[in-house]
Amino acid sequence: MKFDILTLFPAMFEGPLTESIIRRAAEKELVDIRVHNIRDYATDRHQVVDDAPYGGGDGMVMKVEPLAACIEAVKRERPAARVILTTPRGRTFKHEVARELSREAELILICGRYEGVDERVRELFVDDELSIGDFVLTGGELAAMVMVDAIVRFIPGVLGSAGSVETDSFADGLLEYPQYTRPAEFRGLRVPDVLLSGNHAEVSRWRRCKSLEKTRIERPDLLVEQVVTPSDRAYLAEFERALRQ
């Protein structure tokens, strides 16, 4: 899968995209990530990429000309690439969106800055606008890093265990159950006996129940969207009664 990231601050990507799982994915040629400096496409001597907004107001706006030139240069090599703008006004980037984007062969991520980009960039080039949450960052670089990290995990062969991505939090709409490893006891705290039993059916049920409990306490809003089974609903009703006691 090919990623092209358009930014004013390319050095920000040197750590997050060159270490750990993403580095190994690149070494295995499962991903190809290129970072492009938008300033390289400014035509004036000072490489100006922003200007005051028409109509007045605070802050600056990213100019259309350098961004257009950068996007078009990348598109000449990646004509089929889907162009995404990171922006607080975009649709929320979620687990399913990451899965959806992982099916693309090529993605171009534009990192917004300042008060945003000239609207004509959206009108001429952008296929999708995404936000990683209801808060404002100093720029879209961190959002782009988050998106790349989440998307890459869905690419076959990237993770050591193919099943890992299917058992993560949000994979089935619920938060993930607690995880344990050796030793079986630490400072008086023991691993739940069911996990040591070797009974896979009971382990599976325990994990499902703990996911339901965790989601009910931490993110009850997810249960509104999540399709739960009759046994899930019965367990949650019992759990609710226990909480009220």
Automatic annotation (TrEMBL):
<comment type="function">
    <text>Specifically methylates guanosine-37 in various tRNAs.</text>
</comment>
<dbReference type="Pfam" id="PF01746">
    <property type="entry name" value="tRNA_m1G_MT"/>
</dbReference>
<keyword id="KW-0808">Transferase</keyword>
<dbReference type="InterPro" id="IPR002649">
    <property type="entry name" value="tRNA_m1G_MeTrfase_TrmD"/>
</dbReference>
<dbReference type="GO" id="GO:0052906">
    <property type="term" value="F:tRNA (guanine(37)-N1)-methyltransferase activity"/>
</dbReference>
<feature type="domain" description="tRNA methyltransferase TRMD/TRM10-type">
    <location>
        <begin position="1"/>
        <end position="223"/>
    </location>
</feature>
<feature type="binding site">
    <location>
        <begin position="132"/>
        <end position="137"/>
    </location>
    <ligand>
        <name>S-adenosyl-L-methionine</name>
    </ligand>
</feature>
<dbReference type="InterPro" id="IPR023148">
    <property type="entry name" value="tRNA_m1G_MeTrfase_C_sf"/>
</dbReference>
<comment type="subunit">
    <text>Homodimer.</text>
</comment>
<dbReference type="InterPro" id="IPR016009">
    <property type="entry name" value="tRNA_MeTrfase_TRMD/TRM10"/>
</dbReference>
<dbReference type="GO" id="GO:0005829">
    <property type="term" value="C:cytosol"/>
</dbReference>
<dbReference type="InterPro" id="IPR029026">
    <property type="entry name" value="tRNA_m1G_MTases_N"/>
</dbReference>
<keyword id="KW-0489">Methyltransferase</keyword>
<dbReference type="InterPro" id="IPR029028">
    <property type="entry name" value="Alpha/beta_knot_MTases"/>
</dbReference>
<comment type="similarity">
    <text>Belongs to the RNA methyltransferase TrmD family.</text>
</comment>
<protein>
    <recommendedName>
        <fullName>tRNA (guanine-N(1)-)-methyltransferase</fullName>
        <ecNumber>2.1.1.228</ecNumber>
    </recommendedName>
</protein>
<keyword id="KW-0819">tRNA processing</keyword>
<keyword id="KW-0963">Cytoplasm</keyword>
<keyword id="KW-0949">S-adenosyl-L-methionine</keyword>
<dbReference type="GO" id="GO:0002939">
    <property type="term" value="P:tRNA N1-guanine methylation"/>
</dbReference>
<feature type="binding site">
    <location>
        <position position="112"/>
    </location>
    <ligand>
        <name>S-adenosyl-L-methionine</name>
    </ligand>
</feature>
